[in-house]
User: Which sequence fits this backbone?
């Protein structure tokens, strides 16, 4: 298998695991008759952080982006190659994003299988959709977009800093592996996640939303496509802005 094939498989598996565990903790909290039912938002944020930890662990061969906003943020930062040693070009970027999207759909399908009986017995359509995708506490598309931009900016900016800037000065905190990223996701959730549920990842939201749309979920209702653009566009803008700002504010080599 060539390098791009390894990258594709690595990102697909990592993102699938991320979404399986992340959507899984939401299902445990939101769907009736689960042992974790009513566990609350803190349980969800911790679960998502550890889901990111697990996804990063298994996708080391690709540099563990698991998020189009991270991939595009690195491009915007001026990186010439990704952590896997793959050169940055149109083909490699599309490979990363395609694998992330497909992996997110697969992870969401496996989450549904794990909780199939609970989905069947859940009367609330919003709870079912909430397992798969985010939704705002107060629907205001402009302000919801701002929240997603800010949250994703923090995510990508700090991730680039973990690596010591786009040129990897002094190795940054990357040697600590996935733990810093997991803690970062938890703090973003607890600090900035309340207004929108903090997608901060286009694949994490759109992939499972597609799965919700195509799966034969009993009484599932709408997939809320009217809101679906916000957790895609917001994170992309936030990630690209973080990459651009990092070139000025983070250590780089001339």
Assistant:
């Amino acid at each position: 298998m060539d390098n791009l094939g390894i990258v594709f498989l690595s990102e697909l598996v990592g993102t699938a695991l991320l979404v399986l565990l992340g959507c899984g903790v939401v299902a445990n909290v939101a769907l009736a008759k689960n042992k974790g039912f009513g566990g609350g938002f803190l349980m969800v944020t911790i679960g998502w952080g550890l889901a990111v930890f697990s996804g990063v662990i298994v996708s080391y061969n690709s540099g563990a982006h698991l998020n189009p906003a991270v991939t595009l943020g690195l491009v915007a930062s001026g990186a010439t190659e990704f952590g896997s040693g793959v050169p940055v070009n149109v083909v490699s970027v599309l490979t990363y994003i395609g694998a992330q999207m497909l992996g997110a759909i697969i992870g969401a399908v496996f989450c549904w299988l794990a909780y199939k009986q609970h989905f069947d017995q859940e009367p609330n359509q919003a709870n079912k959709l909430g397992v798969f995708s985010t939704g705002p506490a107060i629907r205001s598309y402009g302000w919801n977009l701002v929240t997603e931009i800010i949250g994703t900016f923090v995510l990508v900016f700090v991730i680039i800093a973990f690596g010591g800037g786009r040129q990897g000065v002094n190795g940054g905190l990357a040697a600590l592996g996935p733990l810093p990223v997991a803690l970062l996701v938890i703090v973003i959730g607890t600090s900035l996640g309340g207004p929108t549920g903090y997608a901060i990842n286009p694949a994490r939201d759109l992939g499972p939303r597609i799965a919700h749309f195509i799966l034969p979920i009993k009484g599932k209702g709408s997939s809320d496509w009217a809101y679906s653009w916000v957790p895609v566009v917001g994170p992309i803008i936030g990630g690209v802005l973080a990459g651009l700002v990092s070139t000025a504010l983070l250590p780089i080599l001339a």
Notes: The domain at 3-246 is CATH 1.20.1080.10 (Glycerol uptake facilitator protein). The radius of gyration is 17 Å. The first helix runs from residue 3 to 30. The CA atoms of residues 77 and 248 lie 9 Å apart.
